[in-house]
Amino acid sequence: MRHSMSLKARRELLRATAGRYQKSSKKEKQIILDEFVAATNYHRKYAIQQLKNDSRDLDSPKKQPRKPRVRKYDDAVKAALVIVWEAANRICSKRLVPFLPEMVAVLERHDHLSLVEDVRPRLLEMSPSTVDRLLYKIRRGRKGVGIGTTKPGALLKSQVPIRTFSEWDDTSPGFMEADLVAHCGTFASGHFLQTLVMTDISTGWTEFSALLFRNQETVLQEIRRIRKQLPFDLSGLDTDNGTEFLNYLLLTYCFDEEITFTRSRPYKKNDQCYVEEKNGSIIRKFVGYDRFEGFQPYQILAALYEQLRLYVNFFQPSLKLIGKTRLGSKVIKKYDRAQTPYQRLVAAESISETTKEKLKEEYDALDPVYLLTNIQRLQDLLWPFAYVELEQSSSSNLLPVSQQKKTRQSKMESPVPGEKESCSTQSQVENADRMYRRTKKKRKDSDGRRWWRTRADPFENVWPEIEQRLADKPYLNAKMIFNDLRQAHPGKFQDGQLRTLQRRVKQWRIEQFDDKMNVENPFSIPGNCDSK
Questions:
Q1: DSSP 8-state symbol, 279
Q2: Percentage of residues in the chain with pLDDT exceeding 70?
């Protein structure tokens, strides 16, 4: 509704009415408010707010401005949070906050963190939303998409029972899902490295193994090796339908060792949701999506996994889904408190006290910052061996990054034994570039100049005429010549072609100047006062 009074009149009425309204009784206020609303056409609630807050004509002192809030989480708390977050490899706040007391104690034990007494309680009482707010400007993440190389094997499908995500015993450690991750880049043919990933459903304990080739014998050999270093007995094994798993070798081994062997449904990745999640959050995050071939990168990748299994299982907490409730189209998920696989194993009743003591001794001797530094060092050794596809090329034009740059004369050394080096979470590559790494395609060798034309030359027929005029009258510029051409050839040249002519004239003059320099005197510049 349009106001019948001007803004200036409404303000004058407000000044005259506010003081009387604030000193009146309740009944008098109702009468004053009715009159004020009728005159100004204000909403009743807005009118009450204006009449109550307007004190420009009152004798009462003005309200003092509110003092700014004191920062509870200052720069000192933020700096300590960043150190812990970097040591935890930049995990999300919901996983980091429950693990903060444990991680702070570990970092202080290994002299990576020293907290003042007033900083410690503020750091440990942070909520996940506060952590997200403090780390907003420095946290970055990138994810990529890989390609699958699983080939279905139909020979033993009838002999291996199907397990879905809603079945199996996941209350005690020992039932694991297994899968392969292909390091093939964007081209799945030929030989390339593979990674065998095995994840325990109950605790999230994950083991990794690098494979030089993908075949039945290699997979079975690595499963045997992984089984020996597990802190629990392998009771069940669930795989996909690839031929590297569905074969008589693995089936016979599981039967002889009394291991429950099941498979997932074809094209149903949610049946193996536990190991599929580790493929992305661990393998792709730390190794990336590049293509790796050969024995030397295989050795580096195997050494990387020896460090990574300790770092992930002892210092990377994870959330576990404990329930889902559907309300119409909305699904409400409930998760437990974030814990590391080591913490879940220690709390498991089926694990013996001897095994728990060994895990505790191993945990006390581990330094997360030292492990993360070794992982980053091995990443720097591995990534130069990535094969990168050249742009506009066939699959045969795949070159290692190490051949496109200067060859790195560094010999791989295992960082596990020996004395500790100076540990720092900073490395040759920024942390944001380490996650989900995908090397960009390389352009073909070129001088950067395009020698072909993309459209017809508008000055092809008149160019001899232009050259003659430039030779006779060097003072002419391209715009003067263009105006003369439009008068001599009406309707042939458009306004947008002036810039083309300017570039052509500039190039012609450069060529004429170079020719003149080469013929007359290549060591003197025409017009220079020093040359006579």
A1: I
A2: 77
**Do residues 252 and 379 share a domain?**
yes
Q: With cut-offs at 50, 70 and 90, classify the pLDDT of residue 425.
A: very low
CA 366, distance to chain mean position in Å, is 27
Q: Which of 135-144, 344-353, 398-407 has the highest mean pLDDT?
A: 344-353
Instruction: For residues 405 and 507, state if they share a domain.
Output: no
Structure tokens at 198: 């095995």
- The residue among 281, 145, 102 whose CA lies nearest residue 208 is 281
d(CA 148, CA 510): 55
In this predicted model, what pLDDT tens digit does every residue of 496-520 receive, in sequence order? 889 989 988 988 888 887 666 565 5
Domain termination site, one of 433, 466, 497 = 433
What's the structural domain count of the chain?
3
How high is the pLDDT of residue 371? 94
Model pLDDT, residue 428:
43
Task: Tell me the CATH number at 390.
Answer: 3.30.420.10
Q: Are the C-beta atoms of residues 293 and 190 closer than 8 Å to each other?
A: yes
Name the token pair of 242: 């690839």
Instruction: Round the average pLDDT of the chain to a whole number and report it.
Output: 81
Non-local (6+) Cβ contacts of 126 within 8 A are 73, 81, 97, 100, 134
Using CA atoms, how far apart are residues 388 and 130, in angstroms rounded to an integer? 41
For the chain, the C-alpha Rg in angstroms (whole number) is: 37
- The span from the CA of 482 to the CA of 196, in Å, is 69
Q: Within 10 Å of residue 176's Cβ, how many Cβ atoms?
A: 28
Q: Who has greater pLDDT, 513 or 162?
A: 513
- Give the domain range for residue 523: 484-527
For the cut 80, the answer to whether the pLDDT of residue 211 exceeds it is yes
C-beta of residue 414 within 8 angstroms of C-beta of residue 399: no
What's residue 448's pLDDT?
55
Pairing of strands 330-335, 321-327: antiparallel
As a whole number of angstroms, the distance between CA 372 and CA 427 comes to 10
Q: Which two tokens stand for residue 72?
A: 């509870």
Q: Which two tokens stand for residue 284?
A: 């792709």
pLDDT for the residue 424: 43
d(CA 368, CA 510): 62
The answer to whether residue 293 sits within a structural domain is: yes
- 150: nearest Cα among 107, 196, 112, 201: 196
Q: How far apart are the first and last CA of the chain?
A: 88
Q: Of 383, 384, 399, which Cα lies nearest the Cα of 187?
A: 399
Instruction: Identify the H or E element spanning 387.
Output: strand 387-389
